[in-house]
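Thread: Modeling a multi-component assembly for a lab meeting

Hi all, long-time lurker, first post. My supervisor asked me to bring a structural picture of a complex we are working on to next week's group meeting, and I have zero experience with this. I have the sequence lines for every component (1078 residues in total). Could someone generate the structure of the whole assembly? Inputs are pasted exactly as I received them:
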Amino acid sequence: MNNSRALLIIFFMFTGFILLGLKLFSIQIVKHDYYAEIAEKQQNKSQKLKAERGSIIDRNGELLAITKNDISLYVDKRMLNKNETDSLTSFIASVFNKPRKYYQNLIDKGRNNVLLEKKVSRERLLKIDDFYIDGFIVQEDFSRVYPYGSLSSHVLGYVDNECNGVYGIEKQYDKYLRGKDGIKFIENDVLGRTISVKENDSRKPVAGNNIILTINKTYQTILEKELIAGIHKFHGDSATGIIMNPKTGEILAMATMPDFDPANHGKFQLSEKRNRAITDPYEPGSIIKPIIMSMLIEEKLIKEDEIINTENGDFRYRTTHIRDTHPHAYLTVRGVLEESSNIGMAKLSDRLEENTFYKYLRDFGFGNITSVDLPGESNGFLKKPKNYSKISKPFMSFGYELSATPVQLISAFSSIINGGNLMKPFIVDKITSPDGTVLYSNKPEKIRSVISSSTSDKIIDFMIGVVEEGTATNAKLNNVLVGGKTGTAQMLIEGSYSKKEYNSSFIGFFPAEDPSIIILIKVSSPDIGRYGGQVSAPVFKRIAESIIDADLQIIPDNMKIQRRKEYLENLLKEDRNSRDQNIFKFSNIGNPPEVKREKPSVIKGMMPNLVNMTIRDAVAILNELGIKYKISGDGKVLEQSINPDEAISSDRICILRCETKKLADLRLN
Amino acid sequence: MKINYNLQDKFDFSIFIPLLGLVLLGLLAVYSSTYENSSASNNFERQFIFTVISFVIFFVIYFLPSHTFRITATPIYILSQILLIAVLIIGRVTKGAKSWLDVGFVGFQPSEFAKVGLILFLAYWLSHKKHDINNFKELLSAVGIGFIPIILIILEPDMGTAIVFVVITLVMIFWSGIDLFGLFAVLSPGIAVFASLFGIVYFMITLFLILLVLISFRRDLFLSTTIFVVNIAAGFVFEIAYKFLRPHQQRRIESFIDPYSDPLGSGYNAIQAKVAIGSGGLLGKGFLEGNQTQLRFIPEQWTDFIFCVIGEEFGFIGSLLVLILFLILFMRLINLSQITKDKFSSLIVVGIISLIATHFTINIGMNLGITPVIGLPLPFLSYGGSSLLVNISLIAVALNIYRNRKYSG
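Re: Modeling a multi-component assembly
Sure thing. I ran the full set together rather than chain by chain. Output:
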C-alpha cells in the first residue's frame, strides 16, 4: 500500500541524509583546520616570559646599561575569591603604605586583569614571599637601568617601556640585546580559568647578549665633563666631541652636550636625544685644509717652502673677496696651513683638477656615510664637479660649500695621519653571550688607502707646526707633541652665512710622532671667542691632559710625563660619587636609604671581602680595583666567587650572589 | 554466526541493533560531557538508570497484545491533553518554558507523552473507515486533532516540540491518502508563514503563487477562497505568534540567520558546536579527549548538543556512524510501514518515523549550524529521561507491530 508515497518519503529521507553527510564532511574534513584553529585559540592562552635584556659594557668592563629584574603585581579577578579580596588589599596596602581603599577601588573598577603595582623592586617582594592567594599574580617586569645616568646617553640610546631598543646602541643591536622571550602555554576553560600549563610546548626565555663597546668610560667621562665646561666658559649652544683611535677607527668616546637621561627619555625632546656627532653635518671650515693640502702633496703640486702671495689678507677672486683672519703678504706653503690662510688655500686649490679634487674628497669619505654601527647616520653634502660654480673649489678648500658630520671629519682626518688609510669607524668591540662566550668580534676595517704614508708624515709635520707656532698654540701640551688644525666656520642660517654664529672646531692628535688618539671638538655658536683656536683648542688641551693623566698606556715610557696623583684621585672620587647618586636617580629603587657606609679596607690586587655589603658599595669597590664582576640577585651580598684576600688576575670574573627572591616560589599564574 | 530465522521473524534485529548502538553511543557521549563537570556529575548514572528502565518497558510494550494500541489510543490522547493543560497551570518553568510537571521525585514533560497520544489517536482517527480524508470537513477535524496539542505546546511555549507535532500531523495526513489538493490546502499556510519570515515582499510573491496554484486546481470557488484567506491569515498569525515567543527564542531565530552577529550571545552555541565538530576532524580527538567538550565550551552539551561530543571525540567516522544507524532505523521502519497488517499500524509507524526524523533532522541541523537552535534533543542519544523513555517505547510499539504483522484482528 501507499507505494508512491513511501517512495516520496524515502526520497526525502535520502536527500536529507546526503545533505547532512555533505555538511558534516565540509565541517569535519574540508574546514577542519579552520575550526581546529579556532578551538586551539580559545582553549589556549599563551603568556610571554620576557627575556632579560643584555648589558652594554664599556671596553674595560664597566656596565653602562643593565637590566633590573623588577616585578609587577596583578590580580586576575576571575580567579580571585571574593572573600579573600579584603586580606589581599590590606596586605598589599601594608607593603606599599597606601590606603587599602586605593587597591579596593582598583580591583572594583578593573576588568579581568588588574594591575596593582608596576615595576617595584624585588626587595619589596621579600615580604610578599609567603603570601599566596588565588588570582594574585606576581610577574617579572624588567627595567632598564643606566648606572651612570646621562653618561654616553647619545651612544647608548634608550628603550621603550617594553624594553625595545628605540635609539642608539639599544636600537642598532636590539636583536642581540633583547634575547629570546619565552612562552608559557596555558589551557583554559570557557571562563578563562587555568586548567593546566602545557610544559612541553612552553619555552624558557633566553637572556640577551652583552654588547661590549670600544667606548672607554673614563675618556667618555672626561670628554663630557670638558664639553660642558667648554659650553659654560664660552657660552656655546652645544658642543660635540669624538675621541678615536686613528689607526683602527675605534671610537673611544663620543658625546654631544647637552645630553639626556635615557632612563627618563620621555621628558626630553627628540632633538635633544639625537646623536649629533653622526646625524648633523656642518660646514667644517678651516679644519679641512690639511686634507686639501694632503691632496696637493700627494699629487706633487706643491713644495713645502714654495712662496705663496697671500695678498695682505684681501684677495679679489673672480666675483667675490676672500679674506684672511691673519693677514700676511707672503707665506710658505707650510705657513698657509699654520696661519690658516684662506687666500693661500684658494690659490693652491687652483692647481687641482676639479675631478681629481672631487675624487679625493670622495675617497676621504665625504658625501657618504661612514657606516659606523649606530643608527641614523647622515651622508653630509658633497657637490659633484658638474655642479661646481667658479668659486666652488676654492671655497671648498677652506671648508665651505660642503658639509660633513663630526664622525666623517674625524675618520677623514684619521686617514691623513695614520699613513693614508681610511678606516671604518666602529663603536662595538664585541658581542658576548650571557655566559661570556664571544659571539662576534669587530676587527678594524680598512676601507681604502687614500694617500701615501710619506704624504701622511709630511702633513703630520705641518700640523705639528700649526700647534707649535700657528693658530692652535692653545692646544700645546707639556711633554707631549701634539698636531692639529683649527676651524672656524660661519653657520649657515636659513641659507645665508651668519656674521655672529660660528662653529668653532679643533681637531688634534697625539703623540704626534705616532698618533694613537685623535680628538675632534666642535662648539656651536660660542658667545665668548669665536675661533677654533680660542674656543675648541683649550677644550682639546684639557681633555688630552686628563686622558694622559688617567691612562698611563697612552703615552710611551720615554715620554711619560709627571703623573698628577691628586688629579687622578679626585677624578675617581667624583666618578664614584656621581655613580652612587645615579644608581638611585636613574633606576626606580626609590630614595636612597640613609645608611652609614663603612669604608672597607681595600688593597690593590687583592680580593676584598664584600659579604654583607650592599651591591652599591661592592660595585664601587670592584670598579675601583678594576675587578670584573657579575651580579645575581638584589640586596645584600651573600657570597662572592673569589674568596677574600685571594690575588686578582685580570681574566677572572667575580660573581656576587645576593639575596634573591626564590623564583620557584613565585606562582606566576 | 547462526541466525535464528524464527526469532528474526518475531523481532526485527535490524531495528533493535541500530537502536542499541545509538543508545550506547549516547551513554558514552553523556559520560564524556559530564564526567568532569560538578554541576552535572550524576547525569550519567541517571541516564544509565533511565536506559535500563526504558528497556524493561520496551519489552513490556513489545509483548502487549496487538489490539492494545487501538483500545488505548483515545484515552491516552485525552489524558495527554489534560496533562498539557495541567502543565500550563502548575508546571515548572525551565529555560523560559513551562514544560515540566513534577510527579513525586521525578520531573516529566507532558509534551513527550502527548507525542504518543497524538500518533496513536491520529492513526486511530485516520484509519477509521467512516473518515474520508479527502472530505474537507474530515480533513479539518484531522488537522484539529493535531492542533489541540500544538496550541497547548505553543502556549508553554516550546516552539521546537510544536514543530514536531506539526510535522507528525502533516505526514500522517499525507500517509492516510490525501489527494494533492488537500495536501496543498494543508501545506500552503506553512509555506506562507515561512515566506513571511523573509519580509513582506516575499510574503506577497508567495501569496500570488499560491493563488495561481489554487486557480489551476479549478476547485469549488468557496473552498479556494477559504484556503487563500487562511493563507493570508497564517502570515499575520505568525507575526503574533512571533511575539508570543520568549525573547531568548526570538533571538535564536535571529541568530540562525547570522550566527556570527552575536558570537557570545545566542549564536554562541551554534558556533561552539561547529568548532567542536570541525576540530574533531576525520578520526576525532579520542574518547574523553575532546577539549572543546571537556573545557565546557558548550553549555549543557549533554542535551541538545550531544552530537558534537561524538563529532569532536570520534570525528567524521563517529558522526557518520550515527547518521548510518539512524538511516538503517528509518529504512527498516519505512519497510515496516509497508507490511503492517492494517492501515492503523502503518499510520502509527509513519507517525513514529516522522517524530524521530524531525528530531533527528533539526537536532543534527542545529549542531551543524543549518537549522535554528530551537531545543530539540537527539532521539536515543541526548540526556533526558522522558524523551528516552518515550522514544524507546515508540520503537517498542513499532516492533510490537512487526511481531503482529501477520495476524489480523
